[in-house]
Sequence to fold (84 residues):
Amino acid sequence: MQMFFISLFELLDKESKNWRKDTIILMDGAKYHTSGEMMEFYRKNMAPVMFTGPHSYDASPIELFFAAFKSKDINPDRIKTGKR
Fold:
């Protein structure tokens, strides 16, 4: 997870050195987002993070996309995937 954020922060730094002043990274409260290790990582990198509350789908519009996406048959030909 930290590797993703390091890459994201590097990209944002290239776009604007001041991105931390007008950007908030919104995430759900999953344990891998809120672990002590990640919280320390955010602090050290001065990452402006905010977490949604449990089951707060209204605060996270991407959940509407995920719900619509998951409701469709995205593999109608039953092509094998990496999952068993």
Remarks:
- The radius of gyration is 17 Å.
- The first helix runs from residue 2 to 15.
- Residues 26 and 64 are 15 Å apart (CA to CA).
- The chain has one domain: 12-71.
